[in-house]
UniProtKB/TrEMBL annotation:
Keywords from the named record: Amino-acid transport, Cell membrane, Ion transport, Membrane, Sodium, Sodium transport, Symport, Transmembrane, Transmembrane helix, Transport
Protein name per Swiss-Prot or TrEMBL: Sodium/glutamate symporter
Gene: gltS
The family this protein is said to belong to: Belongs to the glutamate:Na(+) symporter (ESS) (TC 2.A.27) family.
Regions that span the bilayer: 6-24, 36-56, 71-88, 95-120, 162-186, 221-242, 248-267, 279-302, 308-328, 340-362, 374-401
Annotated membrane topology: Multi-pass membrane protein
Any coiled-coil regions, as ranges: none
Superkingdom of the source species: Bacteria
HAMAP family: GltS
Function: Catalyzes the sodium-dependent transport of glutamate.
Gene Ontology process terms (BP): L-glutamate transmembrane transport
């Protein structure tokens, strides 16, 4: 039996699940103390309930999927619209260091995945799919590469199932471990936010403090909504045009973010219009919370239940590696200060799942301990743009190893 929710019913369910996440997080001290994001709590509970209904009631619940992409693209467009060049310059040296740090993790994830798969006598493609393809790449990258591995010369037929299950596992794990890692580092080293360094950019602070009340007028809100719509329109068109013309593919959200950055700075330099950060941040935060809630509540947990032992072992190794890497590499090389602790939480988010998970991880930490201007400049750029390019190059390099007979 299949139970189908239309557009309106899906919207109601998403909002109720998110509100459930807020309610439970506020009531349970552990979740609050360890900075577990509300969308992860609500979406995780909903996915378990859906799994139980499917397992014991033989009822498959399907939601209207038309929400997912627009919400995700809106979030990334809002990040782009809040990224003025003067702020991006402040990332400076730490931005370059963080790029090297995340590149090191991509290589490490693939070495672990292929190594564990080979040690267990399994196809090394399982290890690659359980490596940077899905851990740092997420569902989109996983699905894209799986479609390639199904075809010649690989002919790995279960690639899609392995990719979806791995990305789902990583998405959940990334949302769970980020807050506790930051809490451990902050408490261990008695770290404090630098209020002086974190008070100069309202655009970034709007994402760090999503609960802060923001003044909004109908006219300015409509203008901000129009800017985001323009980012989605141009970004989607560019993605399709470049793919059909050159065969080069990048996720559509990368183009939307890039268009947002160009649009924000072009308008600012020309003094045609000043982007109203408050409205943009409200739209971005709402989209982020709803997207992550929907993504988690609609994951097929039965894919995880049916995972074979090898991929499960690989994923456990990846989670342990992410925890250790964020503590001993990310935190250390990014300065061993409060900003570095928040960066570590963000790295857990997109190192195992996706950039939206990284953002809610950091929001949960900064809501509790104070703002981190630098982290909210660096993570969206690296997690939403640079990592996809670097990951594609590294994956292609690994495919030329003798394991794969490329």
């Amino acid at each position: 039996m299949s139970l189908n929710f239309d557009f309106y019913a899906t919207l109601v369910v998403i909002v109720l699940v998110l509100l459930l996440g807020f309610f439970i997080t506020n009531k349970i001290k552990f979740l609050k103390d360890y900075n577990i994001p509300e969308p992860v709590v609500g979406g995780g509970i909903a996915s378990i309930v859906i799994l139980l209904i499917y397992s014991f009631g033989d009822i498959s619940i399907k939601f209207d999927n038309s929400f997912k992409d627009p919400l995700m693209l809106t979030f990334f467009a809002s990040i782009g619209l809040l990224a003025d060049f003067s702020s991006l310059k402040k990332g400076g040296k730490k931005l370059i260091i963080f790029l090297f740090v995340i590149s090191g993790l991509l290589i490490t994830q693939n070495i672990i995945g292929i190594g564990v798969a080979s040690a267990m006598g399994q196809n090394p493609l399982i290890g690659l799919l359980g490596g940077s393809i899905t851990m740092s790449g997420g569902h989109g990258t996983g699905a894209a590469w799986a479609s390639e591995f199904i075809k010649a010369p690989y002919f790995f037929t279960p690639a899609t199932e392995v990719a979806i299950a791995s990305a789902t596992f990583g998405l959940i794990a990334g949302g769970i471990i980020g807050g506790p890692v930051a809490r451990f580092l902050i408490n261990k080293y008695s770290l404090k936010t630098n209020l002086e360094d974190n008070s100069s950019n309202e655009a970034i602070l709007n994402f760090e403090e999503p609960q802060k009340e923001k003044l909004i007028t109908p006219t300015s809100f409509i203008k901000s909504l129009a800017l985001i719509g323009l980012c989605l329109l141009i970004g989607s068109y560019l993605s399709s045009w470049i793919k059909s013309s050159t065969g080069f593919t990048l996720p559509t959200f990368v183009y939307c973010l890039f268009v947002g950055v160009i649009l924000r700075n072009t308008l600012s330099i020309s003094k045609v219009h000043q982007v109203f950060d408050r409205e943009v941040s409200v739209l971005g935060n709402v989209s982020l919370s709803l997207f992550l809630t929907f993504a988690l509540m609609t994951v097929n947990l039965w894919e995880l239940v049916s995972l074979a032992l090898p991929i499960l072992v690989i994923l456990i190794f990846q989670v342990i590696t992410m925890i250790l890497y964020s503590i001993f590499i990310t935190f250390k090389f990014c300065g061993k200060d409060y900003d570095a602790a928040v960066l570590a939480a963000g790295h857990c988010g997109f190192g195992l799942g996706a950039t939206p998970t990284a953002m809610v991880n950091m929001q949960a930490v900064t809501n509790h301990y104070g703002p981190s201007h630098m982290a909210f400049i660096i993570v969206p750029l690296c997690g939403a743009f640079f990592i996809d390019i670097i990951n594609a190059l590294i994956i292609n390099a690994f495919l030329y190893l003798p394991f794969f007979g490329h």
